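Hi there,

I know you've been waiting on this one. I reran it after we fixed the sequence typo, so this is the corrected version. Both the input and the resulting structure follow.
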Amino acid sequence: MAHPSRPAVLMRLGGTFPLGLGGWLLLVLTIGVAGTAAAEERLPVHGFRIVASWPHDPYAFTQGLIWTDGALYESTGGYGRSSLRRVELETGRVVQQRQLDDALFGEGLTAWGDTLVQLTWRAGRVLRYDRATFAPLDELTLPGEGWGLTHDGEHWIVSDGSASLRFLDPETGAEVRRVRVRANARPVRRLNELELVPVRRAEAGQQAAPVHHEIWANIWHQDRLVRIDPADGRVLGYVDLTGLWPQRERPHAEAVLNGIAFDAERRRLLVTGKHWPRLYWIAVPGLLPVPEGSVD
């Protein structure tokens, strides 16, 4: 603490100078930034290991990816090129497809009961289809943009490129609540594709690690996934996927990591990207190990 009879000072090379209002603001900002950076560094960052990979349509601008009831489904984007697809995992072959209207840009995708739910980017429309036939059923209205989509068994969870996740009523599309995603105090923006992932995390004082459902999200133009607590938006850590498909091999700047699907039966995490030629099954040491006897 500075002596009460003297002005506060900040040391600098060659002497001191009075710390006025501007100096105090600089000091507070410096401490705040340093504190945030230090806290950011304490968030765990997990690596990955490729377990297997399969062909993926290099012309698919992947926006949504899900695995449900033994099948892989994909939503692709681009005006005049958007589609809903069922894909054969082992070959990457599209075995069922529905093209969207040329005026629609396909985005996130999730399964809801016997239906598939697909977002559109800026049209404000949420499209629902019969899962078996891809026949359109009905639509809901979505204010703002649609990016990523998943669900927690009760609500649809939507990203829109901001640091917010919206929880929607599946019957009406009305917003029930929202959380602001933040790494300590810093908002994490550009949240894109979403997936609800069950992770066993050991808690203090617990002998067995319970399952916690986390939201894993792509961050647009970053080669990492962010792990989010759905209760309050708190960032739990990151999964660094640098090098999964090297930047130097990508055909253009928008060929970014995007697409997360969790196979609950085999506990596989499948990931790909926009215009990527491969789809990967990855293990995440410490979070998602490879189940014994399940490697293809």
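Quick highlight: DSSP finds one helix and 25 strands in the chain.

Best,
R. S.
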